[in-house]
Amino acid sequence: MKTVLRLQSEKFKLSLIAILLPTACFLTYYFHAVLGTGAVVTHFYYIPSILACLWWKRKGLLVPVLLAALLILSHIFLRVQVPTLNDYSRAFMLIVVAIVVAMLSEKMAKTQEALRESEEESQNTSMELALGLSEVFEALKRISS
Questions:
Q1: Cα→Cα distances 19→13, 16, 69, 73, 123, Å
Q2: What sign does the CA torsion over 25, 67, 56, 100 have?
Q3: Are residues 83 and 69 in contact, defined by beta-carbon separation less than 8 angstroms?
Q4: Do residues 105 and 57 make contact, with C-beta atoms less than 8 angstroms apart?
């Protein structure tokens, strides 16, 4: 049951990223080619980047790297203008934010795993204690009878 839910969750995640990436491409085209500006474009890049890094940790870094390349290459392909220092700094910041999210996501996953192991260990210990107490209780019953 857990594996079915996990597969459905993974399909949802992939579907969402598959929708957000073409949307980012379209918005890049729209802002660069139609409106002639690039200032707002990178705001739309953070959502898929953060989600990908949150869900897939280091593997999710592929999404912000692709989007950063799109930001820089869109100037060249759309022949709008030459990428400026501002564009390079936005691409760099997108990747930095993604790396931080991926690192925090990995740390969070490790902490959750440690908590799960600790919970299992405490449950085993409490079961052993309960079993020992029931044996002592039975022994006391035999002695008192």
A1: 10, 5, 18, 21, 43
A2: negative
A3: no
A4: yes
Reported pTM: 0.77
Residues 43-73: tens digit of each pLDDT:
889 999 999 999 999 999 999 999 999 888 8
Q: Please, which residues have CB within 8 angstroms of residue 123's CB and are 6 or more apart in sequence?
A: none
Q: What are the structure tokens assigned to 19, written together?
A: 């929708």
Please tell me the distance from the alpha carbon of residue 24 to that of residue 79, in angstroms, as a whole number.
18
By three-state DSSP, how is residue 145 classified? Answer: coil
pLDDT digit string (tens) for 15-41?
999 999 999 989 888 887 788 776 667
Q: Do 95 and 66 touch, CB atoms closer than 8 A?
A: no
